[in-house]
Amino acid sequence: MKRYMMIFNLFLLPIMMMAAEQTLWVDAPEKAVAGTLVSLSIYTQSENGLTVALCDMAGKQIISSNTFPAKHVQKEGMEEEIALLGLPSTLQSGSFLLMLYSGKTLLWQQELSVKMGSFLKEDIPLNQKMSDLRSDDDPQKVEEAIAIHAIYNTFHRRPFDETLRLQLPVTGGRFSAWYGDRRRYCYSDGTSALSIHSGVDIAAPVGTPVSAGGEGTVVFTGPRIVTGNTVVIEYGPGVYGAFFHLDRIDIEEGSKVDADTHIGVVGMTGLATGPHLHWEIRVAGIPIDPLGLLATPLDMASSSPIQ
Predict the structure, then answer these.
(1) Which residue intervals of the chain are DSSP H helices?
(2) What distance in Å separates the CA atoms of residue 183 and residue 170, rounded to the nearest whole number?
(3) Per-residue DSSP letters for 108-133?
(4) Mean pLDDT (whole number) for 201-224
(5) Are the CB atoms for 212 and 258 separated by under 8 Å?
(6) CA-to-CA distance for 22 and 15, rounded, in angstroms?
(7) Helix, coil or strand: residue 147
(8) What are the backbone dihedrals phi and psi of residue 274, each rounded to the nearest 5 degrees, phi first?
(9) What is the pTM of this model?
(10) What is d(CA 131, CA 186) in angstroms, rounded to the nearest whole number?
């Protein structure tokens, strides 16, 4: 992590507007791995929140997220804001820019060196029923995808305990698929389609209890065509956990949960070739590797040495 103290009253880039004079402290990583979390700690006099973006070296925005206030943390009269960015697993190795904005005004930027992740390849043979389920052009699947991505991209600005730790939601299972797996679905008619796995799969017998994995609020429960019986939990501002293929849902929308709260049981509803739980974490809409967050506070997750 590298710390900066900056007083801005000058043009930082030709395309920038002149920023009002203000003091700013930023803690941000200089290295990261694709598919992981990047967190920034910002001390600012702004009370309205800021925007952090990951851009290519030409300044083209790739992803962005809003900041949220930390709980009761001050430094020299400034409040701490936290920003969390999920790096897509598809990022190639190279240099990028972290850019901090207040409205349209660029306040700060820093180069971020990203290393491409290492992911497995797998072929998944599908029978006729699963082939039809995945390949059918059903408008309801599109509607369901739009609805759940609207949830993933919802951001509620509020004070947040950035020391949130997550834990595995299933005890006694085994990992049957990993985050970022490059998949080829092999249909029963001999054709195929490529996909990237957005979470981890934990194989366990039907009926195995599933817990929430972290403190939060249940924001969706219900059946979906592809993901079967589904639960989505908001762990924090812009941070969501999704649980797919449940045999039974035992929690209601709006419920407050902690890591050990029972939410349902393992099943194989939707597109599933065997009983398992699919668990994924979304940050500002981007899926990241859930295993990178286990037992690690969110604000420390990006401090891990580059692999």
Answers:
(1) 128-135, 139-152
(2) 24
(3) EEEEEEEE-----EEEEE--HHHHHH
(4) 97
(5) yes
(6) 19
(7) helix
(8) -170, 165
(9) 0.89
(10) 8
